[in-house]
Amino acid sequence: MKESKDDIKGCFVLKKIAIIVLSSNWDSAYSVASVVKTQIRSLVRAGYSPRVLLLKSSPPWILRSKVDYRMCLPNVKYDEHNGKANAQFFKGVHSISRALEKNLQGIDIVLSHDLLYLRLLLPYNLAVRIVGQKLKKLHWLHWAHSSPFSRPRRKIGYPYNMLYRDMPRSRFVSVTKAQARGYARRYAVADSKVVTVYNPRATQDFMTLGPIVRKLVEKYRLFEADIVAVMPTVLSRIHKQQEVTLYLIAALKDAGKKVRLVFADAYALRRKDNEGVRMLQLKWLSRKLGLSEGEVVFTSETNTKLKDGCPAKVIKELLQISNVYIHPSGYETGSLALMEAALTKNLCIINKDLASIKEIVKKDALWLKFDSVVRAIKKKYKIRRLKDGFYKYFYSYYQDNRASFKAYARKIINTLEEDRSLSLFSRVKKELNEQIIFETQLKPLLEE
Asked: What local confidence, expressed as pLDDT, does residue 9 receive?
């Protein structure tokens, strides 16, 4: 059976969405345009093909093959302080309404930005209301991007009273819950008619992430984890104690945290040398510890460009995303990776036995006591040489020392929560990224 033209997610037919925005500059860092860009990107990612109505002078943005940009709206100027509702004013209103009516045909929901809120956009306010009366199947979500100001105490006449009037089949959108009631009072509507959709931060743009890391973020949902650790490493160097990093991540997961561990490694799985063996070992241990394939990532497997290792740029971008850096080795003279983690404001967790860098790091890290796991296994199980079949003891070691790693996990969590900067960083990255805001706040409004 041939599918319909409409995109279908399960049994849900996606609605036709339009966005109206009057910004003429897509490059502004802190503007309504930034919010609209995240909405466009989120809609396209979810399978929608949005229509974006712009001023005639505005250029289209990216994703042009999937977005219907229409530079159709006349640029009607209005002096918010001295403007008069004269014949010229209403001529402008009707020119806007004609453009809107023509370009909103076939649309189900319109997302408008500041059109019903700002006094200087009064001509567009009236035009939207005219079109709303004509196209009665349209539903509207009206964003307000400034603090709400009160309704005037004295009665005001048309058209200025439209700045405070409800509109049929509409809901008003506040960008914070604290201001929602203020908008309800301004438009004299029930509190339930005002919804909150936080301004999502285009975190990937802000961090200037490249395409390789963007794909990792989306595939493994790195922004949604409570704990993200990155370990640049050569897997065959067993003294780096990659297993200890796995132990800590497993303990953090057992403590109820969403975790991701990214090994920035060189491709090894098809090689017969120690590098390939080490990858297989670490994967086996990960599963025994209860960590899924999506929670432990080897970069060399994710992109052919990373098969020979991660460029410095990729590691830097990954460290920008992570909030924890674990350094379990006790046998190094220095560590550039540790310095890079510190420069990207990760909580650094360092082996107490690594005396060589104490003079540099001092007390500005979480120092934890880690055994030499290989030595401890040899001693306990009376093994002279590491030979076939020995690796099972790495899991036995964790079981024997589970209480210690549980205590370490609690220390890490407490440190992250007590440091306000680290705590806020993790929360903004996790809760205010564009994908989460779309899925939890905007998408439900589109599916009502």
From this structure: 46
- Which residues make beta-bridge pairs with 111? 19, 141
Domain boundaries, the chain: 8-201+436-446, 205-431
First-last CA distance in the chain: 28
The topology (CATH level 3) of 8-201+436-446 is Rossmann fold (3.40.50)
Q: What residue has token string 């058209």?
A: 159
Burial profile 136-158: b = 16 or more Cβ within 10 angstroms, e = fewer = eebbbbbbbeeebeeeeeeeeee
Provide the whole-model pTM.
0.82
Instruction: Look at residue 73 and give its three-state secondary structure.
Output: strand
Distance CA 20, CA 186 (A): 22
**Cα separation, 118 vs 230, whole angstroms:** 46
Token couple for 252: 């953090």
The CA distance from 120 to 131, in Å, is 19
User: In a 10 Å sphere around its CB, with 0-12 CB exposed, 13-18 middle and 19+ buried, how is residue 206 labelled?
Assistant: exposed
- 74 to 18, 57, 140, 219: CA distances (angstroms): 17, 9, 21, 41
Query: DSSP secondary-structure letter at 323?
Result: S
Residue 11 makes CB contacts below 8 A (sequence gap 6+) with none
Structure tokens at 53: 């109505």
Tell me how far apart the alpha carbons of residues 337 and 327 are, in angstroms, rounded to a whole number: 9
Going by C-alpha positions, the residue among 229, 297, 250 that lies closest to residue 398 is: 250
HEC assignment per residue over 154-197 = CCCCCCHHHHHCCCCCEEEEECCHHHHHHHHHHCCCCHHHEEEC
> At residue 96, what are phi and psi to the nearest 5 degrees?
-70, -45
Q: What is the dihedral of CA 384, 387, 391, 396, to 10 degrees?
A: -30
Q: Is 392 helix (H, G, I), strand (E, B) or coil?
A: helix
Nearby residues of 77 by Cβ (< 8 Å), 6 or more positions away: none
Number of other residues whose CB lies within 10 A of the CB of residue 8: 12
Question: So what's the pLDDT on residue 309?
Answer: 83
- Tell me the average pLDDT across 102-121: 94
CA–CA dist 187, 324 (Å, integer): 46
Give the CA count within 13 Å in the CB-facing half-sphere of 339. Answer: 6
User: pLDDT tens digits, residue range 59-111?
Assistant: 888 888 999 999 999 999 888 777 788 889 999 999 999 999 999 999 999 99
Per-residue confidence band for 267, with pLDDT thresholds at 50, 70 and 90:
low
Tell me the two tokens of residue 259: 């975790």
Q: Do domains 8-201+436-446 and 205-431 have the same CATH topology?
A: yes
What fold does the segment set 205-431 form as a domain?
A: Rossmann fold (3.40.50)
